Amino acid sequence: MINTKLATIAVIGVSLISGASMAGMSERMQWDMPEFNQIDLNNDETISPVEFEQFRQQRISEHKAEGRQMKNMNQTNMFDVIDLNQDGLVDAEEFSQHQANRRMTW
What does the pLDDT look like over 9-32, one tens digit per residue? Predict the structure, then answer.
């Protein structure tokens, strides 16, 4: 009887810790998502491929310096994925849509 109670308590504890860990990870990922104005370096309300790459390289350097895991390093075509109308620029609407899609996949 006591062993059953202890096992039940252990399972509940592990479940709570695991759930909290996943929630925390989701919050960190969402917090780490850049804002449009961080990438639109010249404030012209669009992100050019040059601005995007400058921001990307800066972010890679910062994450590396912090010892963080480097993910999606080989996604060189990410700008084209975000540029939905393929006009060579990313506007705030395209950027927001991309961010929303990323949130849904977590």
Answer: 655 655 555 554 444 444 444 457
